[in-house]
Write a structure and sequence with these properties.
alpha/beta, Rossmann fold
Length: about 210
């Protein structure tokens, strides 16, 4: 068993999954990666960071596609190819970063299909954070006080749709399927610190790392 471990966090919008991931990393004293992965992939590839974000949006806009022909294969496209900056190649660069991190250090990774990319590794705890829609709406209304309830509702639905499209595009799978995860946490039923306790306790049980004492 590798000495390091990785916690992947997938989350519904408004479920506070990102914050729970940050608090977990702080509790364990390990790095936290979310959109920082895009910067690392940009540095590795030499491709402008803005193109990675544009590729995410492009996946959402293109409603119809042949998923089987476009899922992640692990093959990088060379710089002399016209497809070098294609969205699948941008994703592959991110995937390479995620896999290297999993091989070299303990960390928390939020989003970016990390649960799928690291699914066959024994040192990974895959977590899904969710909450009832109305609870997420309430949380987002507090964060976005200048928006109407209808606007916030649309924002939550659209963001979750983007995440589902992104996951399906590159993995061919269902983003919210429980089979992808080792533990699912309803953040409306567990305060953030309690959610962290659950993650750290599960980590300790799975990997015997005495995580609760770190």
């Amino acid at each position: 068993m590798s000495a390091n471990y990785v916690i992947t966090i997938s989350r519904q919008h408004g479920s506070r999954g990102n914050k729970i991931g940050q608090l977990t990393a702080e509790r364990l004293g390990i790095p936290f990666y979310d959109y920082k992965l895009i910067r690392l992939a940009s540095d590795r590839s030499g491709i402008n960071e803005a193109l990675f974000g544009a590729a995410d949006e492009d996946v959402h806009r293109r409603r119809l596609f042949n998923a089987a022909s476009k899922v992640y294969t692990g093959k990088l496209i060379p710089p002399d190819s016209g497809e070098f900056t294609s969205d699948i190649n941008l994703f592959t660069y991110q995937a390479e970063i995620i896999k290297e991190l999993a091989s070299t250090e303990s960390c928390v990774i939020v989003g970016r299909c990390a649960d799928f990319l690291l699914r066959d590794r024994p040192n990974v705890l895959r977590v899904f954070i969710h909450a009832p829609f109305e609870e997420r709406l309430k949380q987002q209304m507090f964060i976005l006080p200048n928006r109407t309830e209808a606007e916030v509702r649309r924002h939550i639905i659209t963001t979750d749709k983007k995440r589902a499209d992104y996951y399906r595009r590159y993995t061919g799978g269902n983003w919210m399927s429980a089979e992808h995860f080792d533990v699912c946490i309803d953040s409306s039923a567990h305060p953030m610190e309690e959610a962290v306790d659950i993650i750290v306790g599960t980590l300790d049980v799975m990997f015997k790392v005495n995580a609760g004492k770190l």
